[in-house]
Structure formats: structure tokens, C-alpha cells
Amino acid sequence: MHDQPPGPLAGFTVGVTAARRADELGALIERRGGVVLHAPALRTMPLADDAELLAATRELIATPPDVVIATTAIGFRGWIEAAGGWGHGEALLTCLRGVELLARGPKVKGAIRAAGLTEAWSPASESMAEVLDRLLGEGVEQRRIALQLHGEPLPDFVGALEQGGADVVVVPVYRWMPPEDFAPVDRLIEATVARSLDAVSFTSAPAAASLLSRAEHRGQLAELVDALRHDVLAACVGPVTAGPLQARGIDTVQPERFRLGPLVQAICAELPARAGTLPLAGRRVEIRGHAVLVDGELRPVPPAGMTLLRALARRPGWVVARAELLRALPGAGRDEHAVETAMARLRTALGTPELIQTVVKRGYRLALDPAADSPYGDG
């Protein structure tokens, strides 16, 4: 198994802000070699405890709507299960059999059919905009429309229906709440600001907004935004999720299909592309988050060593003075011996000491190949 090449995320650390399906997302990242820092930015209210969902369910059973819009499979299933737990399961299913049932996408269609129901229509684009266009095209005046939400409100969607004359009943499945323990979120913010994370993944707009809000509460919003703008990849499952980040001027990476698998694939494509690759001493060296690939072999490097390596890589082939390297080392004080110690450990970790040259009485430099066309080329 030693001949197996490292995964595309080997040497990188990815923050996961999801609460729901975090284990699935984390497993996808780890399977590709990445290290996961999990910090749920939100939690979901248990459906059985949600008085708002119970009230909406009773209201719809008492006065059935004309149209029900199911937006997510897990949300629709959860609603049916919660209604069953309250003793309203059969009454809700009877209600839904008599309405025009719209499914946002194929997964929701599957959940609807598993409940013994049949959808009237589903948009090919899986887009709520297409659902809205259809409803407004048909006319919604004096129609009663139930909208099953999943964690986040859709004020523009609801507002457009109400402006058209509809009576909209919101079914708030899985409402988001702040996390009970902010310590993991605070650690993720610190790691992002310190650039010890390579990417942060987001699967819902409320999670993105919650992280920004917590950073603001801690007085670190400007630092967090700066890190996400310039150094730490912000990866979002779709454009709605990216909204709060883009409002702060943060560019995001998004997959074409709004799913966890494509989200991880997008991260796998972006992070290695960002890593600096250098031709050093006849070797191909790729500097990743907490490790280095030397001719395709993964070499974990201690944090102090990575700090020195990045300082040298900013000017490949140029001599970097010990004093400058000392300033880059956190907590090293004025003792230049700290640089020598960290450098010795770095060379040991790389397994190829000749990658870094000592220039007597001056400092250190990377052993850039003379024939290299560009310091950041492939060699």
C-alpha cells in the first residue's frame, strides 16, 4: 500500500461548518486524504419539540391548501415522521393526497412517493425560481399555498407569492438555532485567521451567516474576512449558501451540482491548484497546508518548519536572512538558535536535506534548479 499515491487533499486541512450530514461530508474529505476540523456553526431544533411545525401541520389539516411545495427530501420525510409522532400522520397524508404537490427535485420526488403520494410536477432545473415562475404563470390569487422550508427562510419567494395574491403557509421543518457550544466555532475562526486551515466548507447560508456573526461578536470579523478573501478557500454547496460570504466580498468556489460529492470534488480541484510547486535539487516539491509532496511522496512537516518553508518559497532561490526567518517564527523571541532548530527539523521532515541550502553568515535559500523556467513552474 506504500506505492499508493496520496489523495488530492493529502496535506490539507478543511473546516466543516455543517451540523446535519457533517459525518458524511467529513468522511468524503478524509477519504481523499484531507484532515477535517469540524465546527458546527448551527444546530437544528428537534422536530418533535418544534411547536411552530406542529401548529403549521394542524392548520393545514384543518384548512387544506391548494398547493404544497416540498423543497427537500429529508425535510419532507421529517415532517411526515413528526406528524406521525404527534398522532397526525394519517390526517396529514390525507390532506396531501388532495392537493397539487410540487417537488423541487428528484430526491424530493422519491420521498413523496415513499410516503405513498404522487407529485403533480417537478422542475427539470431543481430550481425554486422555476417553481415560482410556474405558479405565477398559472396565477396564485386567492390560492392557499404551503411551503415546506428546510432550515432557512425564503423571503423573496414568499413575498412574490403574497404579492400575487396568495395565502402562504410556511412549514418550518428543521429550524436552525445557534450552537449550544461555541468553542469549536471559535477554534475554527482562530484557525482560519491563523491560516492553519486551507479551506472552509459551507452547506447552508445560515451556517455562513452564523460564522460571520460569531467572528463579529469576537471582534475578529475583519481578520476572518481578510483570510477568506486572500488565503483560505471558501467552498459553498451552491449560490444561495454563498450569499452571506459574497456580500462581504469573499469569492467562493461552488460545484455545478449542489451536492456534497461535487462540493468535495471542487475542493479537490482547487486546493492542489493553489499549492506552489517548485523544482528543487532535481526534485518536484509541492507545498501544501501542513505537509509537502516530494516527488509525489507526502512528508508531514511541523508548523514551525512550514512557516520557514513558506518564507523561503516566497522568494525561491534567494537568500533569506536568519533575522527575517526569526521574525516569521511565532513565539521565537530573539534567539536565532530557534531558526536553526526549526530548520534542522524541517530538513529531517522533508527527507531530502539538500532541498534547502545554508549560506554561511547570511541565511538559507531553496535549492532552485538553474534550468527552471519559472520559480513556480513544473520544472
Describe this entry's structure for a reader.
Strand 13 (291-294) and strand 14 form a beta hairpin. The chain is 43% helix and 18% strand. Helix 3 crosses helix 4. 37% of the residues are buried. It has 379 residues and is α/β, with parallel strands linked by helices. The protein has helices spanning 22-31, 51-62, 73-85, 89-97, 106-114, 128-138, 155-163, 183-193, 205-217, 221-230, 239-246, 260-274, 303-313, 322-328, 337-350; strands at 13-16, 35-38, 43-44, 67-70, 100-103, 144-150, 167-173, 176-177, 199-202, 233-236, 276-280, 283-287, 291-294, 297-300, 320-321, 356-359, 363-366. The chain folds into 3 domains: 13-42 and 179-274, Rossmann fold, CATH 3.40.50.10090; 47-176, Rossmann fold (3-Layer(aba) Sandwich); 276-366, Winged helix-like DNA-binding domain superfamily/Winged helix DNA-binding domain (Arc Repressor Mutant, subunit A), CATH 1.10.10.10. The protein contains 15 helices and 17 strands.
Structure summarized in a few sentences:
The chain is α/β, with parallel strands linked by helices and 379 residues long.
